[in-house]
Design goal:
Blueprint (H helix, E strand, L loop, with lengths): L8 H10 L6 H6 L9 E4 L6 H14 L13 E4 L3 H14 L7 E4 L5 H9 L4 E4 L1 H10 L9 E4 L2 H6 L3 H10 L5 E6 L4 H10 L4 E4 L3 H5 L2 E8 L4 H12 L3 E5 L3 H13 L4 E4 L5 H12 L5 E4 L12 E6 L6 H8 L9 E8 L3 H10 L5 E3 L4 H13 L13 H10 L2 H13 L14 H12 L21 E5 L9 H12 L6 E6 L4 E5 L1 H11 L4 E2 L3 E6 L2 H10 L73
Parallel strand pairs: 1-6, 1-7, 2-4, 2-5, 3-4, 5-6, 8-13, 8-14, 9-11, 9-12, 10-11, 12-13
Antiparallel strand pairs: 15-17, 15-19, 16-17, 18-19
Helix pairs in contact: 6-8, 11-16
Length: about 625
């Protein structure tokens, strides 16, 4: 049976009315006959039509082979989206899709009046779309009844977890009936996503509709290298060079959005801003200005731009580099949608070259490394647009004839052409002069070579060695390469916590789970003294004395070498190995206890868990008016 035959009749009519001739890969995938009423874990990229996809997938659960949705005392389906804009966009899509079926859609999003939303919920809508925090509020107040839910959809689940909505999602899913369908849509399936699916889905079918080719086929990626102080100048020149109908510029912080928006506004660009500090009304007005042509540039943070779908968005500029491949793909996915070509430009400060290479390599993107457009490049582009303007190819209308004759009789052709050029350039911002790096051709070639390497070929970090260091003592830190250990932050952290200077630090050797640091004897003693009985520095980093780097290898051969270190997102914090305890009995069936390496090089008894209680002259305990500090 074809995918088209699986579409419910009222939804098929809505698609036909909307002008849908074919379905996208994700829409075809969710209509596969073998799915039935199973839960789904779907990988779908931004702009792939996934909103319509889960709308089609829900039809079998909501309609029950009927053509019209019946009256219900409570919502039948719940859609959870990470941001207000995406939730409103989802509601808009589902309204036209379920209109022939008589579907009623309500939204519950932050920034809106709770009273209006409660009234909308009291009208018993069939589908509710909302953001996690607001949905939890309605559930706790009793205005959102979950008893009749047949399906729950998590849209862009990876982004909701990144934004810290894990607890809210778990509370919503636990409030929903156990006998329900759970459809989870995510651009990437990370470990947290996999755990969420395992805990709240039942025998989910995995659908992957993303391929490396499809992910980037309609987007031209490029990386533009600039000096750190020229980032804003590069943004201006790129906007002038591309002259896109709509452009989206990403900043990582709100203050960066405000600063860049003011700069562009002063240069004459029609610009709006989006960030989390804006009210819902302000955000809606900004998007409306982009859609009706009053603004051509939108400067936004990652969270604020999530779910934005702007017509004619042909250019995405990363003024601040994305932190990982997911952010890069989500940002760039705002353009190149529905078969339309788009451009995604990363502005790379010279000092952030390697970070940009890593993010692009992880995302399997081989962009074009180049320099920012110069003043001459921009002027040539503007001149080419004037020469190719459609008005020059059109004939003279009857209403224009008299004025054309008067102009040609009064002015010379060159004078008329000069006037045309001045009119075409009127109101345009002037390009910026940008300094290029020394020997740019060599730099660009090195960047191309590095960017072409495969993701599996990662260079090992070289240990930090010092040849002028003698009689050093070694300490082990409970953080390694897997926790992003790097001498750039380890050295100042040790100096701060140990109270010594950089010249007291020798070699640094980083392994997957531990880091060995060579210190001068007085610095090692001072660091361990400040670590205290619990051997903790920097609030949560475990430190201990070791005989040398070979001790690290021996411990790692026995098992996981990680001691107590920085808290990680994907599991509980590891604890330091326990010291030997007396025989508790009942362990004969567990075999002989394996010997662990010593925690330090001292022969005295293990330190007490707390300071020794003070005693009087006759041995009686004294009461301390204040608890003693362990420092």
């Amino acid at each position: 049976m074809s995918a088209e035959m699986q579409i419910a009749a009222p939804l098929a009519a809505a698609l036909q009315k909307k002008g849908f001739d074919t379905l996208t890969p994700v829409q075809e995938a969710v209509l596969s006959p073998e799915i039935g009423e199973r839960d789904l874990l779907v990988s779908a990229q931004t702009g792939s039509g996934k909103t319509v996809a889960f709308g089609l997938a829900l039809a079998s659960s909501l309609l029950d082979d009927a053509d019209v949705l019946g009256v219900s005392d409570a919502p039948l389906a719940l859609i959870i989206a990470p941001t207000r804009e995406l939730a409103l966009q989802v509601r808009k899509e589902l309204e036209w899709l379920y209109e022939p079926a008589g579907g009623q859609i309500a939204s519950c999003i932050g920034g809106m009046d709770m009273r209006d939303e409660r009234r909308a919920l009291s009208r018993n809508p069939h589908i509710v779309v909302g953001t996690p925090g607001r949905l939890v509020d309605h559930i706790s107040r009793g205005s959102l009844v979950m008893d009749s839910l047949r399906a729950v959809v998590l849209d862009e689940a990876d982004e909701m977890l990144n934004m810290g909505f894990r607890e809210e999602l778990e509370e919503i899913l636990e409030s929903a009936p156990e006998e329900r369908r759970t459809l989870l849509f995510s651009a990437t399936v990370s470990k947290p996503i996999a755990r969420l699916a395992e805990n709240y889905q039942n025998d989910a079918m995995r659908l992957n509709t993303i391929s490396a080719r499809e992910q980037h086929i309609d987007i031209d990626y490029s990386a533009v290298v600039v000096a750190p102080e020229d980032v804003e100048k590069a943004v201006i020149n790129l906007l002038l060079y591309h002259d896109a109908p709509n452009a989206l510029v990403f900043c990582s912080r709100r203050d960066g959005v405000n600063k860049l928006t003011a700069r562009l506004n002063n240069r004459g660009f029609p610009v709006v801003a989006l960030s989390g500090e804006f009210s819902q009304k302000e955000r809606s007005n900004a998007l409306l200005a982009m859609r009706d042509g009053r603004a051509k540039v939108c400067v936004a943070t990652d969270v604020a731009a999530r779910g934005i779908d702007l017509p004619g968005l042909d250019l995405v500029i990363h003024a601040d580099l994305p932190s990982n491949k997911e952010t890069l793909l989500h940002r760039s996915g705002r353009t190149g949608r529905a078969g339309r070509k788009g451009a995604s430009v990363l502005i790379v400060p010279t000092r952030a070259r390697r970070r940009a290479e890593r993010v692009m390599r992880d995302a399997d993107i081989k962009g074009n490394w180049t320099l920012p457009p110069t003043t001459d490049d921009i002027r040539k582009n503007l001149d080419a647009r004037v020469l190719s303007h459609p008005a020059l190819e059109e004939g003279i209308s009857e209403a224009e004839g008299d004025l054309v004759d008067a102009l040609t009789a009064r002015f010379e052709p060159h004078q008329l052409a000069a006037a045309l050029v001045r009119l075409a350039r009127a109101g345009q911002a002037l390009p910026e002069d940008i300094d290029t790096p020394d020997d740019p051709s060599k730099w660009l070639q090195e960047s191309r070579d590095r960017n072409g390497r495969t993701a599996d070929r990662r260079e090992e970090r070289r240990p930090r060695e010092r040849s002028d260091f003698e009689n050093g003592e070694w300490v082990s830190l409970g953080v390694g390469r897997r926790q992003s250990a790097d001498p750039k932050w380890l050295v100042p952290m040790l100096c701060k916590n140990g109270g010594f200077s950089r010249d007291q630090i020798g070699s640094i050797r980083i392994s997957p789970n531990e880091t060995h640091v060579e210190l001068r004897p007085n610095a090692a003693a001072q660091l361990m003294d400040r670590a205290g009985a619990e051997q903790i520095i920097d609030k949560s980093l475990y430190v201990q004395r070791v005989s040398g780097p070979e001790d690290m290898t021996a411990r790692q051969d026995d098992g996981p070498g990680q001691r107590r270190g920085k808290r990680r997102d994907d599991g509980p914090r590891d604890r330091p190995a326990r010291r030997e305890r007396g025989d508790r009995g009942g362990r004969s069936d567990r075999g002989e206890r394996r010997e662990r390496p010593a925690q330090n090089n001292f022969d005295e008894k293990p330190a007490r868990k707390g300071p020794k209680k003070p005693r009087g002259p006759n041995g009686e305990k004294k009461r301390s008016p204040k608890k003693q500090s362990r420092d």
